[in-house]
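Sorry to interrupt, but I need a hand with the structure work. Could you add the entry underneath, on a fresh line?
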Amino acid sequence: MNALSAKSAFEGAVDFDYSQEDFRALSKLVYADAGIVMPEGKAMLIYSRLTKFLRERGCRTFAEYIGILNSDAEERRRTINALTTNHTKFFRENHHFEHFARQVRPGLIKRALAGGRVRMWSAGCSSGEEVYSLIMTLLGEDKALAQRIAATDIAILASDLADHVIAAGKAATYPAHVADEMPPRLRQNWVNADGPNIVMSDMVRSLVRFRQLNFMGDWPLKGMFDIIFCRNVMIYFDEPTKAKLLDRLCAALEPGGYLYIGHSERLVGPAAELCEPVGPTTYRKIER
């Protein structure tokens, strides 16, 4: 059998039988369910993240566990969650928040205060740092104005594939040291201390709704969005999947709305003709 050795890479790990065929089957499953490409260099990452599931299910081989995945939708979902990488921080790629604050926020606030509707989406929100950075930027430094903003028809959706990061986002609780990543005035206004942690304020939390959503599945969304952040998600996808996702994101974006993507990403497919660049990895949907 063409097996991948685990003992040399994981000292003390149970040496489950894990073959190239098993890796290919798991890679195919991840791609089919989540659109994520798992190159062969990720073979041992898959091993390390899934061995605990094999132990829990009493499996002796990966082939046996794959058989369970083929018939157990909940276990399949849990496996996809375990193989989803989530790296984020507050105000990551801060130029996006600076662009939003200078170029976009004033118009959205004016519309909202006049009784208009404003919708934003943090697509691939991970554990909430991105969406809370966006909301803090929206509310700003003037707390009296923020009270008026929060009372308008503004709503922000935060979605991710993985249930465990959605739960973390809802909890809105983070180690205290991450507050150093925030602009001081925004931190002072919108963050509360809680022992060794910080917690986002009630006003910030009131504006966001977290939801589990798979980019490869149906999007049961109501209405369109003025702002979409979808950053450092497409790096895990192949070109056809990127093009399909971007096309769907653009379809969900209001004409004149803004799309923010990751620093190493670019628009491909029909989206490249529908949106114009207005800043680094920042695009505006063309009004026709």
